[in-house]
Amino acid sequence: MRKFLIYFFAFVFICFILPAIFTKQDMQVSASSNENQEKKEENSSNNATNDRANIETNDEINNYEYKNYGTIKLLHKSTGETQEVKLDTYLCNVVSAEMPATYELEALKAQAIVARTYTIYKIKNKKHNEADICDDSTCCQAWISKEDRLNKWDEGKRQENWQKIVQCVKETAGKIITYNNEPINAFFHSNSGGTTEVPVNVWGGTGYPYLQVVETSGEDSYSQYSSEAEFTNEELLNKLEEKYQDITIDFNNQDDIKILEHTDSGRVKTVKFGNHEISGVEARTILNLRSANFEIIKEERKNKI
Question: What contacts 257, CB < 8 A, 6 or more positions away?
């Protein structure tokens, strides 16, 4: 009887109690495993959220770091003062001075790249002793302060326009135009009169192989595509005498005022005024014309150019 009870309790322990113990342990392990998995997923989610937050934050504060041109020295011609300013901050002032903010974003981005290229070229080929570049458009390139620029825009458009300028500079950060791994001398203009000109015909020298005569379509819709300047015989002579005191013109002789030669782009290369033959570029300067792409029309007692 005693042996029977021992066998009975052993049977109950093996069949019922022992499995229950292992099942409970398995449940604890499983629950622990699930809990750890949930923690891992939570940590992973938190890490992903943190990563996204870091990316967003980095995007917000990201500024392109120029290795050699982080800041430039800007000469203000009107005051003679030199200001040190970040390159892309300076370019916002340049782009807003050179091109209307109402233009397409891609046009403004192209202007930003050209202006950045021109600036770095000037840094590498200094024209001013104590500065990299000046704010005079007739010497370097146009510049306007942010305050003055905003005041010239309608109040309701100021923030939108400025953000557009900033966007085009930021999205082109670090981009310039090069030739043989060097920044080009990136001349630019508002209107080429339908055809560009090679620099050698404007400034002389050896020219630039990357700047050639090309047609530029669509410019005839530009509001300042063409203009006229009228001079009486006396007015014309007086202007020419400021440069050439010995000049004489026989206004009755049709050959005394005459275009002698054109460049490949169709601009005046050489023009005759009485006893002097001068370049079209010089005539443009003396007579304050908008371009050397002009023609001469003679009327009764006045010359119209």
Answer: 249, 251, 272, 273, 274, 296, 298, 303
